[in-house]
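Protocol step 4 of 5: obtain the predicted structure for the target chain.
Materials: sequence only (see below). No template structures provided, no constraints applied. The aim of this step is simply to have a reference model before the mutagenesis design in step 5. Sequence pasted as it appears in the construct record:
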Amino acid sequence: MISRNARYWIWITLAIGYNNPKVKKISEMYSDVSDFYNGGISEWRLCGIFSQKDLEKFYSTSLEDAQKIIDRCIECNYSILCIDDELFPKCLYNIECPPALIYVNGVMPDVDNTFSIGIVGTRRATKYGIENSYRFAYALSKYGTIIVSGGALGVDGASHRGALATDGITICVRGCGLNCSYLRENADIRNTIPKRGAVISEYPPDETPRNYYFPARNRIIAALSDGLLVMEAGKKSGSLITANLAAEQGKTIFALLGNNSPQNEGSNTLIKEGLAIPVTDFMDILCEFDNLYATNDEFDIDNISLADTGSFPVKGIKRQPSARIYVNKPIAEQPAKTVKVEETAAKPTHKENLDLPKTAQDVYEYIGNEPVHIDKISADLNIPVFKVLTALTMLEMKGLVSALQGRNYILK
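Step 4 output (structure tokens):
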């Protein structure tokens, strides 16, 4: 979907730049932004909010350049939501300096009516930071929370992956154009997120990253989030900028309790100064929001499989390729392989009368004494991977199977 007035708002950003508070003033002054464009330089001057440099930029910027960006979005199948569009998030409009528009790959979730948590932290995350980013995002997603992050290495990437692993909804806010190949290490999640949420940016599709784009991007992460969780943040981490912006917007700030390492210096300071609520469990977050969830279901965060987190990309550390991500991917029926009798391992012993859901029961009965990959389970049982993963999580929680490295599972 391309908003009706997209070319005018793109023209405005090309003229006066991004992250400009004058954008909101234009939207408040004109019910139809085309009137602003068609009024010409005399109209722009009468607004009383533009400098001479702004006026010259408006005059010299072509509407054709804006149309080229729209054509590029159509070519890439990106949507454009403008500040005056009905589907533009109100939580984004209400900040002091909203973007004139956002480019969207996927479908923008209903953040105005769905609980959302932003998760941010260092790109040089430790194992502790990676595992907790994944674990919190996974668990919060289980409870219907939208996970918002920036798509960077370290904490951001682990958070997106945690949400995707449970077939949850996540939003990735980029500090460059949607079509930019920046951070190839996380290309797999950027390709998967549009199936379960959206990758968004206020910058045109092919815009390359610039240092000042990322602090500006952080205001969008904060705006889209009901609360912000800081995982691991150093003393000068950009995550602290996001936390300050979230605090200015009246959002609740959380920080993961950590040790005295440099990666935790910033987040620990937030806690010590009373700016963030210390957390060790995802329920610490949910309990801060009254009457948000009414459920008797018990979910043990410690039993989430962390087998693949060692392969998640972290800045400055070379890792093995990350495990493939599957979201609602149909599995074609495949014939079962014939196993020779002499190659068959000892017959596995399964517990009986467990009262498991059918999918979990089928998966449990399939797993034996030899490691088996989740893809093979899915293919042989003809069950989508996300349903297999849900079943495996339940079986792990009940102590019936164990997760091994590389998404392999074995009877416990």
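Step 4 remarks: The two ends are 49 Å apart (CA to CA). The first strand starts at residue 79 and ends at 82.
Proceed to step 5.
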